[in-house]
Write a structure and sequence with these properties.
globular; single chain; 76% helix; mainly alpha
Length: 256
């Protein structure tokens, strides 16, 4: 049920809009979209270079800090400092976990371990087939959920870059991200239990609490949001002639 819901492009769009609005409110920066482009670009670059570094290591090269610094001198899309920064952030749960490259390597390592254990008799054929089938199902689920995971991670890093530019330190940013996009690695026993019956209970409860706090502490933002979204969503107020004139709609949106 969860996978069926999250692979829906409509869900991606809804969650993207939700994250954009929450990031704008949480950072106090309504011009948050450029940070989404930056986050997407940097995460793609990290995955690319992590894969290249892994290939170099597997070929027998010794990968140390000096080698990495020299390697990134020739990289135009990511510096050594940015690579080190992202690698550190990926070790913090609220930033969404490790990169695609590291996740792929982990799966390959697990598969190799299973084959080794089966070959040396540590596990029997039935146990091997069971674990292998589970690994295949997890891999299918992971591929199906990849676009949703990407959308979620980009939102978290967009918020990171925005707050970093405002002078916030890593600890305050991590707390802000956890408060806004939630830390799903930190679920209560109750949340784990309820999700057996209500799959998205944790998100729904935390998201509702988030918007209740916004309504209490920052009502002006909700008024501003209503003024922006109203002209976008209520098209009945426009005549066909007005709808054909995009400048007219843009004027009303910008004018609130």
């Amino acid at each position: 049920y969860k996978i069926g819901t999250l692979v829906n492009p409509g869900t991606w769009t809804r969650n993207l809009v939700d994250s954009l609005i929450k990031n704008a409110e949480a950072t106090g920066n309504v011009n948050i979209l450029p940070y989404y482009f930056k986050a997407s670009k940097k995460l793609n670059a990290f995955d690319h270079h992590a894969a290249q570094i892994t290939k170099a290591r597997d070929s027998g090269l010794i990968i140390d800090e000096l080698w990495l610094q020299q390697y990134f001198k020739n990289a135009k899309d990511l510096s050594y400092e940015e690579y080190s920064e992202l690698k550190q952030l990926m070790g913090i749960d609220v930033f969404g976990g490790e990169s695609k490259t590291f996740t792929k390597l982990e799966k390959e390592h697990q598969a190799e371990l299973l084959r080794t254990w089966r070959a040396d008799g540590s596990i029997d054929a039935r146990t091997y087939n069971k674990y292998n089938a589970e690994a295949v199902l997890r891999n299918i689920a992971s591929k199906a959920l990849a676009p949703m995971s990407w959308t979620e991670n980009v939102a978290r890093y967009a918020m990171y870059y925005s707050l970093k530019d405002q002078g916030f330190g890593i600890n305050k940013i991590a707390k802000k991200i956890a408060d806004t996009h939630f830390d799903y690695a930190n679920k209560s026993a109750f949340e784990h239990s309820v999700e057996g019956l209500i799959p998205f209970y944790t998100f729904q409860r935390r998201n509702l609490n988030y918007w209740i706090e916004v309504a209490e502490n920052n009502p002006a933002f909700l008024v501003q949001l209503s003024n922006i979204m109203g002209p976008l969503m209520d098209m009945d107020q426009y005549s066909p002639e007005e709808l054909s004139n995009s400048d007219f709609i843009q004027y009303h949106i910008l004018a609130g």
